[in-house]
Amino acid sequence: MKVIVIGSGFGGLTAAIRLQAKGFDVEIVEKRDKPGGRAYVYEQDGFVFDGGPTIITAPWLIHDLFELCGKKTDDYVKLVPIDPFYNVRFQDGSVFRYNGKREDVLEQIRTFEPKDVAGYESFYKKTESIFTTGFDLIDQPFTYFADMLKVLPDLIRLRSDRSVAGFVNRHIKDPRLRQVFSFHPLLVGGNPFQTTSIYALIHKLEQEWGVWFAMGGTGALVKALVQLFTDIGGTIRYETEVQEIQIASSPSGKPRARGITLMDGEELSADIVVSNGDVAQTYLSLVPARYRRHNTDKHITSMRYSMSLFVIYFGTDIQYPDMAHHEILMGPRYKELVEDIFTKKHLADDFSLYLHRPTATDPSLAPAGCDSWYVLSPVPHLGSDTDWTAMQKVYRDRIMNELERRYMPDLQKHIVTEHIIDPVHFRDTLNSHLGSAFSVEPILTQSAWWRPHNKSEDIDALYFVGAGTHPGAGLPGVMSSGTIASRMIARDAVEKVQ
């Protein structure tokens, strides 16, 4: 059976590899000139910049793909552990060096607030229960409400109605430590004060299995998966943008995906279509409204979408060895800033930043004696009234001035190359609804069965993978969506034959 996968992000690559390994004839079509989706790689002036994501957790999900194909991960890409996972820096100059060593974490907590050690122990114990339940669901489909009913007792028991921040704050009192243990939802497009507490499992995931880096950057991991896919017979086409998903009637009376039409008018037929594009834009732009009884324009646009990002990729002709591979730079406000971004849709004057320095681990990503960087600021999506044409340079200068003033002396005179992306890039280049960086926001009422389904309710033979569908954003989430879709497709194909 012929399968076309739209997009070559981690979700699309995972689905494509699994389906090709199962005997399907799989072709990936990719809009851009290189694979990766949001994990696109920028190269300029001898520097290599990962577009993102840059935090790798749950490494067994990667190893599973290679093992499925009878291959070894190490023959394609080298994964190395990161220590510390992050430095979390605060306005008062304090730094929490966060890693996976239990005693190190406890000692850091003692340094900040000795009374919070017992609270952390209680918090960690509860994250173990959340992890056991939550991670069991990460590769299970929620196609029917009955699937949801099976897990509701566990979700109620674990108080998934609480937010991550609300959960953390019940156990930890120091305001800085509260930030350390609650910021993780921001890495998957969520508001810590509204994202369901199920996402607290990220802490357990990191503590148990670590944070990893692919030598050569995340792009090296993308390249490895593409090579694996083609080694087992898959094909991929670049600079191939989709205009429409072809849909026809079927004997069941339900519309069925039959292939795709490209922007140049070429038609590619298929038995199955998998979209790794943004789920909202796939429905709104690629599927005619007459076929969407459930996923109507009104339904799609009424959902809540994650924030966007402002990212500056830059290279310096000197190194800053005091900065770790991953730095979380907390601003003067926490909850109020998050409310500005998610609720008020207001671009504030202050910010919190994620600073990525991959040359701390792999110097080959920059010329000798230099550093490769990106600095990322969460910002409102395009539902706000920000004019990014006017604001791009202003906001860039604010961020660079802050980095230079607080962390990296004389930074701007040492910048030798630079590239910027903003919410407009997410909308126009990555085809993301409202320029959202992580698609559908991960609140409880947009999770599991309430999240856009991996199999379309409206159209047979149309499936979804990626951040906007179940289980959500982040590398484990999008790869698991690829696993879910591939299993559903294989099962549905068997039922069709029977």
Q: What top-tier CATH class of the largest domain fits best? A: Alpha Beta
The assigned structural class equals: alpha/beta
Question: Which CATH-level-2 architecture of the largest domain?
Answer: 3-Layer(bba) Sandwich
Number of strands: 19
As a percent range, the share of helical residues equals 25-40%
Write down the overall geometry.
globular
Mean pLDDT: 94
Give the CATH topology of the largest domain.
FAD/NAD(P)-binding domain
According to CATH, the homologous superfamily of the largest domain is: FAD/NAD(P)-binding domain
Q: What are the low-pLDDT stretches, counting only 5+ consecutive residues below 50? A: none
Q: Please, how many domains? A: 3
Terminal Cα span: 15 Å
- Fraction in beta strands: 15-25%
Main sheet strand line-up: 7-6-15-16-17-14-18
Oligomer designation: single chain
Number of helices: 15
Reported for the largest beta sheet, the result is: 7 strands, mixed
